[in-house]
Write a structure and sequence with these properties.
The complex is a heterodimer of chains A (about 425) and B (about 240).
Chain A lengths: L7 E4 L2 E3 L6 H22 L1 H10 L9 H4 L7 H7 L10 E4 L9 E4 L1 H6 L1 H10 L7 E4 L6 H12 L3 E5 L8 H11 L3 E5 H13 L4 H4 L5 E5 L5 H11 L2 E7 L5 E3 L8 E2 L4 E6 L12 E7 L10 E10 L11 E6 L4 E4 L2 E4 H9 L9 E5 L7 E6 L6 H12 L3 E6 L12 E3 H5 L1
Parallel strand pairs in A: 5-6, 5-7, 7-8, 8-9, 18-21, 19-20
Antiparallel strand pairs in A: 1-2, 3-4, 9-10, 10-11, 12-13, 13-14, 14-15, 16-17, 18-19
Helix pairs in contact in A: 1-2, 6-7, 12-13
Chain B lengths: L2 H4 L11 E5 L2 E5 L3 H15 L7 E5 L5 H4 L13 H5 L2 E4 L4 H4 L2 H8 L3 E5 L3 H10 L11 E6 L12 E6 L4 E4 L7 E3 L4 E4 L2 E4 L8 E2 L3 E3 L11 E5 L9
Parallel strand pairs in B: 3-4, 3-5, 5-6, 6-7
Antiparallel strand pairs in B: 1-2, 7-8, 9-14, 10-11, 11-12, 13-14
The chains are: A alpha/beta (about 425), B alpha/beta (about 240).
Chain lengths: ~425, ~240
């Protein structure tokens, strides 16, 4: 790679010099990386070479970001259909996406690509306060590409890695609690649904969550976007600062700083665009589709890949002083419902629900109900009815919803997984 | 001398870097310790007939050695995992229900040579596969290995091969394709009074195996191994 990598600093809260670069310097540097990646893909990857040839783009001679934007978007069905024509580098380990939008995409990882992600992972852990000599209790390394890099990063930072048994499903909470008692970690990484379920479960069992987590100063939450009240709820409940980490199997990676405004993009490994339906960048403050480009010529290339995720870019200065742009991934079209011509995500609804301190932390599911009528939002909420009128008013004001059909789930304890939308028939069951 | 042989003294893990919290205990590993077990898992795969260069899909939790020993890309401090030792490729599938439903499509895309499945979820996997119109049991050329605990419930009928797998004891014992018995590898495990003892890992729990029967026979694939059968339903010899 000809573009010079940023120097590691580990100075106070700053991990490396990329955090101090101006937006212009960062954009210029990213363009050099993007140009190398595109040239490499044009030469070595049959799928991209053919795609760009068909689009009439000379991918070997990009001169600026405008040229880059002429590269056509690619989608998951494109890559699935391409098969071996896309996965030419023969990575050693594969992960699959969740397949919430149809077929899962199998993404291979090779050694060089894995190494490339160590620095951003260490940067995110550093921001969240992980330091040499500490122990991180983490989810299994095999559930997600980004998780596979976490153990490596922890050891490279001079720490120890402990893995709790099972998956992020709440049914494994007992094993997690046992691990907490034995390991006494300073740092925990797990999924947001698991943390929510765990806090509730500990309360039900009369276990003092703050006591159990008394050794922990920070937690990283992955898998679902946190609303600010939910982050506060978890931080307060466990007595540890909670940081959001986000990313995709296809290469997006972002971590939150202590200002908690939205995860900062690890701009050394990925270039992220948020585009409107016509493929143009959305205006500041608007949401669009997340498009990912990996910025290194290792592993299988990902160039202008339309993830389908609904996201928002924040390029205004962060309170932490870092210039790295920030990104919030809200969900997928499949985890949203159309109300009045607008995609309302489960995150949007949780924002309204979590604004009530009595409701924050309850599981919230959008209900797909084709008979509900236009402008009607159907939502299932764990527990007994509470302040429904006020909540309906908030949903109306914030989301333009005309009417809300609430389904209060009472004591029907459900595992809050990654799924955010259910069908009306499941609620009625 | 293999890494396994050189480690056969079973040194205590004094300064561990990694630990796995497993049901009934904790397994700690220092620098280089995981390689001993990666080499052993490769040995298990060889007795199960898994060829070099295979594509291996692992449907198990990521904290299972079947998953984390898969590659150095997954585990820090592991110098060479199964993928690196066998020239293999590993597909991480996880054993949670939401992941299992994806497996038929992943299998269709990747066409693994071997699929290692946690026995607890084999039924769920077969059910999901049937729903999606894929019969895993008859996919051409793919071997399915059920990783069974000592007390595993009976497996659904099918042409499964078996691997005894008890996490807290770090027990990995393949059912031999040649002799049909489970091989307790020489220098790694010992059968004693209804138990299996892990000779290498100081944290490994004693594995209770009440139905354990030492056959007293020998097998050319491991002439000094202890060959055992289990009277329990899941781990025993297939009918």
């Amino acid at each position: 790679m000809s573009a010079t990598a940023p120097q590691q600093l580990c100075d106070g809260g700053t991990y490396d010099e990329i955090e101090t670069w101006s937006p212009q310097k960062l954009r210029d540097w990213q363009f050099e990386l993007a140009r190398e990646v595109v040239a490499d893909a044009a030469e070595s990857n049959k799928f991209y070479a053919e795609r760009w040839r068909q689009a009439g783009v000379d991918a070997t001679a990009l001169s600026d970001w405008n040229d880059f934007k002429k590269l056509p978007l690619v989608s998951k069905p494109d890559l699935v259909a391409a098969g071996d024509a896309w996965t030419t580098r023969r990575g050693r380990v594969a992960f699959s996406t969740r397949g919430t939008s149809g077929e899962p995409l199998v993404v291979w990882l090779d050694g060089e690509e894995s190494q490339t992600y160590f620095v951003p992972t260490m940067r995110g852990y550093w921001w969240a306060g992980f330091r040499s000599g500490e122990t991180a209790l983490m989810q299994s390394p095999a559930w997600h590409r980004l998780a596979a890099m976490e153990g490596h990063s922890v050891l490279k930072m001079g720490g120890r890695a402990a893995y709790y048994w099972g998956s992020g499903n709440p049914q494994y909470a007992d094993y997690f609690v046992e691990a907490m008692r034995r390991v006494r970690p300073q740092f925990v990484t797990t999924t947001a649904p698991f943390l929510v379920s765990l806090l509730r479960r500990l309360g039900d069992d009369g276990v003092d969550a703050r006591e159990l987590f008394s050794s922990v100063h920070s937690m990283i939450s992955v898998g679902l976007p946190l609303t600010p009240p939910l982050r506060e709820h978890l931080s307060e409940g466990f007595g540890a600062e909670v940081f959001e980490r986000s990313g995709t199997q296809e290469g997006a990676a972002a971590d939150e700083c202590s200002a908690h405004t939205a995860p900062h993009i690890h701009a050394d490994v990925c270039h992220l665009e948020v585009l409107d339906p016509l493929g143009e960048p959305v205006a500041p403050g608007e949401r669009g589709r997340l498009v990912v480009t990996k910025l290194f010529a290792a592993g299988d290339p990902v160039v202008r890949y339309d993830t389908g995720d609904i996201a928002e870019l924040f390029e205004d200065p962060c309170a932490c002083g870092r210039e790295l742009p920030r990104l919030k991934i809200y969900g997928r079209p499949e985890s949203s419902v159309m109300i009045g011509g607008r995609a309302v995500t489960a995150y949007d609804v949780r924002m309204c629900v979590d604004a009530d301190p009595e409701l924050v932390g309850r599981m919230v599911l959008l209900v797909r109900d084709t008979d509900a009528g236009p402008g009607v939002l159907s939502v299932a909420i764990e527990g007994d009815a509470h302040n429904a009128d006020e909540l309906e008013k908030r949903l109306g004001e914030d989301l333009g919803v005309e009417k809300v059909a609430f389904y209060w789930l009472g004591n029907a304890r459900m595992a809050w997984g990654f799924r955010q939308v259910i069908d009306i028939s499941e609620v009625q069951r | 001398m293999t890494a396994l042989e050189s480690a056969a003294g079973g040194t205590a893990v004094m300064d561990h870097l990694i630990s796995f919290e497993v049901p009934g205990g904790e397994l700690r590993f220092g620098e280089g310790d995981l390689d001993v077990w990666a080499e052993h898992l490769v040995w298990c795969y060889s007795l199960l007939g898994v060829a070099e260069g295979s594509t291996i899909a692992v449907q198990d939790f990521g904290t299972s050695p079947l998953a984390y020993l898969g590659s150095d890309l997954l585990m820090p401090s592991l110098e060479r995992g199964v993928a690196e030792r066998m020239g293999a490729r590993i597909i991480c599938l996880d054993a949670s229900p939401e992941r299992i439903v994806l497996t038929p499509e992943v299998v269709r895309q990747v066409k693994p040579d071997v699929m290692i499945v946690r026995a607890d979820v084999l039924g769920l996997l077969l059910e999901g596969s049937k729903r999606s119109g894929v019969n895993l049991a008859t996919i051409g050329g793919m071997t399915i290995v059920a990783a069974c605990g000592i007390d595993a419930p009976p497996l659904p009928p099918g042409p499964w091969q078996r691997l005894l797998h008890v996490e807290s004891s770090l027990l990995l014992a393949p059912q031999c394709t040649l002799c049909g018995s489970y091989h307790l590898r020489e220098g790694v495990y010992r059968a004693h009074d209804g138990h299996i003892i892990n000779l290498l890992h100081p944290d490994a729990a004693l594995c209770e195996a009440p139905g354990l029967r030492v056959t007293g026979e020998t097998c050319s694939l491991g002439p000094n191994d202890t060959l055992v059968e289990l009277a329990s339903r899941g781990g025993g010899r297939p009918a």
